[in-house]
Amino acid sequence: MSLAAQLPWLAVAVFLIGTPHGALDHRLGRQLLAPGYGRWWGAVFVLLYLAVSAAALGVWLATPVLALALFLGIAAVHFGEHDSPSGHPLAIAVRGLAGPVVAAAAHPGELKLVFEWIAGEGGTALVPWLGGPGLLAWLCGAAAVLVLEPRPAERLELVAVTALFAFAPPLLAFAAYFALLHTPRALKGSKRPGESWSALLRSAAPLSGAAVLLGIVGFLLWRDQMAAEAALVRTTFWWLGALTVPHMGLALLAKRTSPTAAARSAPGLRRSAAAG
Ligand SMILES: CC1=C(/C=C/C(C)=C/C=C/C(C)=C/C=O)C(C)(C)CCC1
């Protein structure tokens, strides 16, 4: 499948299906901020969230290659925490890095082009690192997880995700992983006891709309400077990067102040908190 043909899938997976799972952050924000700021908690939340996102965007603008490397690392922790039930650091690293490392080994040419779109020409230099030494280290870690992990479902999921990134082209593989595995699981973990799916999605609607609007603005700004394909891919991953930083920071803060409250809003943390 050509890169251009993968783009609609990427856009649907990220902006339509994936957005609501981050757009529930205001619930955690309220728990954290309402006791101190009363009815002003919403304004404080929006200001802090935007400030952290803007700082993350600043890193993308100032040093895109470093930002891409950091993004891959941060995302690995995010995905690994959500998707490895054991909560063990090795399992987290192996699950979280499966996509970048396997895609770099199996589809180096295509990934180089995608990284060039995201971070400029320098971005391509990350691919041989990921697909060479990265792959070797990852294979050792994955072998250890497969031997030591007692849950067949976790072993099977690791094999399935590896196969997905090995056989499907990178952007399509990411779209499938994000829309079919990561987002449903994260949304399910955010559901409060007794809450219906429609109530959950209604609660995510305002911030989802705002976030998608930001994405559209980003795309229109980049579109003047590069081809539409590159603008869409750059916007998508910069946008994900800018929103993932406050999203994870909030979950971390909540975990420190109240592990049970955090567990209700962030499924990855529930597992880690439960694990210790
Ligand atoms: C750029 C890129 C990749 C990495 C994507 C990442 C790291 C996404 C992170 C998303 C997050 C953190 C979402 C939060 O909800 C892949 C899959 C290696 C291959 C295709 C190009």
TrEMBL record:
InterPro entries listed in its UniProt record: Blh_diox
Give the enzyme's EC designation.
Answer: 1.13.11.63
Q: Which catalytic reaction applies to this protein?
A: all-trans-beta-carotene + O2 = 2 all-trans-retinal
Q: Which cofactor does it need?
A: Fe(2+)
- How the protein sits in the membrane? Multi-pass membrane protein
Residue ranges of coiled coil: none
Q: What protein name does the entry list?
A: Probable beta-carotene 15,15'-dioxygenase
